[in-house]
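for the recovery benchmark. tokens below, seq after
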């Protein structure tokens, strides 16, 4: 069994196609197919069920591919460790970035990191905090920027707290509550809300706060981006709870502190067991933000 055979098997499982896997691995399809047949013969099992139209991973294939990924990651780390021993940081680095990071300038951090470590191949993925936590724990992501409710503690990863903010209410500028200097959740309970999808970490922050206050609310619009969320508020379609730094940038809206509103914590998370040299270098390169003012004066922009 060779590492190259493992690479081919992983590529086929992920692409669900021998043709696309061959293109991805820069090898002719016939050679890839021969290697997989040889591997199956050695193992005594069928890894892939294939017809002229589709390829499916068998149960034996799923078990093999899972372990093959770990072997390939170990082999890559061995090469990277050898280079690191000579003072070189190289290899690949996968970073997860939620769309609402406010604690650090992610673009500036990535730019500085690339200039310091040009031999590292950086891949940025966007998505949600829960997905990033699963992927870091599974070893398919190195580092993630997270945003979680104050009551939620990240498990299975190492973290550094980047910021802690009280979310503020964002309302249309002509809303009946827009002139208030401070609100409570009960003032907003009857308002239609714009929020992130149910079950997401972005939504959980507000859901937990309303549950803790013994209040129910209606979320009329579920969105995936902060830009669309604030845009719907600006159109008068609902209220929202967002980070103060996001609220300040919303034109045509009133931004009002909520005394019993949710607290959002941003983290930098990475593998707690054995981070790669590139991952550790990136973690070390992320600056520790200065403490922010805990409150936001009501504003209209």
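predicted aa per position
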């Amino acid at each position: 069994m060779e590492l190259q055979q493992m690479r081919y098997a992983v590529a086929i499982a992920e692409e669900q196609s021998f043709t696309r896997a061959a293109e991805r691995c820069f090898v002719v399809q016939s050679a890839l197919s021969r290697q997989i047949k040889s591997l199956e013969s050695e193992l005594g099992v069928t890894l892939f069920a294939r017809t002229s139209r589709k390829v499916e991973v068998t149960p034996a294939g799923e078990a093999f591919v899972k372990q093959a990924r770990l072997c390939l990651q170990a082999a890559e780390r061995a090469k990277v460790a050898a280079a690191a021993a000579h003072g070189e940081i190289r290899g690949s680095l996968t970073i997860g970035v939620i769309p609402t990071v406010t604690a650090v300038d992610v673009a500036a951090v990535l730019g500085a990191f690339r200039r310091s470590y040009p031999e590292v191949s950086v891949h940025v993925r966007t998505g949600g905090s829960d997905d990033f936590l699963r992927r870091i724990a599974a070893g398919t992501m190195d580092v993630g920027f997270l945003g979680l409710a104050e009551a939620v503690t990240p498990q299975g990863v190492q973290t550094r707290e980047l910021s802690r903010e009280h979310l503020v209410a964002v309302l249309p500028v002509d809303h009946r509550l827009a002139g208030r200097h401070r609100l409570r959740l009960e003032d907003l309970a009857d308002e239609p809300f714009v929020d992130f999808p149910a079950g997401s970490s972005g939504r959980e922050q507000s859901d937990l706060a309303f549950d803790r206050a013994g209040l129910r609310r209606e979320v009329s619009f579920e969105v995936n981006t902060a830009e669309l969320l604030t845009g719907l508020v600006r159109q008068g379609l609902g209220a929202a709870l967002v980070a103060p730094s996001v609220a300040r940038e919303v034109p045509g809206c009133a931004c009002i502190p909520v005394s019993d509103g949710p607290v959002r914590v941003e983290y930098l998370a990475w593998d707690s067991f054995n981070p790669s040299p590139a991952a550790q270098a990136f973690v070390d390169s992320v600056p520790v933000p200065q403490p922010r003012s805990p409150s936001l004066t009501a504003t209209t922009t």
